[in-house]
Specification:
The chain has 8 helices and 7 strands, in the order βαβαβαβαβαβαααβ. The chain is α/β, with parallel strands linked by helices and about 250 residues long. It starts with 9 loop residues before the first strand and ends in a 7-residue tail after the last strand. The mean pLDDT is about 95.
């Protein structure tokens, strides 16, 4: 670990109380960044605060529901006049629901978090990055960004959609030194996946796609990839879609 990789930088991490988000917030803080993390769950934030205190790192956690513009604006204001790195980690699962079983509430919840909320956070951070001469946005997608098998319809649709958002930002704002990239994990040991409903015929069929899945990654393995792509070491990486799935997407 390069303990100076993000020295003097300011990083905003969504979904920072659990899984990849928590591992990333810890890593960035250890690598010298001032980290402002967010999560919508009060209970998760409290546990994460205890975790960061035990690790003796300075990570500030605030409440933010990324589907609410006012809360997104408050998160950006909390970060202050400079943001060097935005890590979009917050996401919602869909309980492996196929088209015929998908209800409107699940569809809207997953789209609101995984696409609309993502767009709102990027849009809110953009002016600060432009004013400071650039910055990096790294969005955590999924193996489901490349195929349908790893999840239900709503999740796969939104994870495909975020690739368009990532590439559009890279294309239009690259000349202004804004880099936008995506990291696509496969299976990861995290609460997001263990809480997902795994019953029903669609999950059983998903097992066909999972037959070639590599062993699950630990959250810090994905955090390491995000940290590097978001650093100055990756200064010429823009618009990239980086699979970090142990080779699952190669099958």
């Amino acid at each position: 670990m390069d303990t100076q990789r993000h020295a003097g930088k300011v990083a905003v991490v969504t979904g920072a109380a659990n899984g990849i988000g928590r591992a990333l917030a810890l890593r960035l803080a250890r690598e010298g960044a001032k980290v402002i993390g967010c999560n919508v769950s009060e209970g998760s934030r409290a546990k994460a605060e205890e975790f960061f205190a035990a690790e003796k790192v300075d990570v500030k956690l605030v409440r933010c529901d990324i589907t609410v513009q006012e809360e997104v604006d408050a998160l950006v204001a909390e970060a202050g006049p400079r943001i060097d790195l935005l890590a979009n980690v917050a996401g919602a699962m869909d309980n492996y629901l196929p088209l015929g079983d998908l209800d409107d509430d699940t569809w809207h919840r997953v789209v609101d978090v995984n696409l609309t909320g993502l767009m709102r956070v990027c849009r809110a951070v953009l002016p600060t990055m432009l004013e400071n001469g650039g910055g990096a946005m790294v969005t955590v997608g999924s193996r489901a960004s490349l195929g349908a098998g790893p999840a239900g319809l709503a999740y796969a649709t939104t994870k495909h959609g975020l690739l368009g958002l990532v590439k559009s930002i890279a294309y239009y704002y690259g000349p202004q030194q804004i880099r936008s990239n995506a990291v696509l994990p496969g299976g990861v040991h995290s609460e997001m996946h263990t809480k997902s409903n795994r019953s029903g015929w669609a999950f059983e069929r998903a097992g066909l796609a999972k037959a070639t899945m590599a062993p699950k990654a630990h959250a810090d393995e994905i955090a390491a990839v995000v940290s590097w792509i978001g650093s100055d070491e990756a200064s010429h990486v823009n618009g990239a879609i980086v699979s970090a799935d142990g080779g699952w997407s190669s099958a």
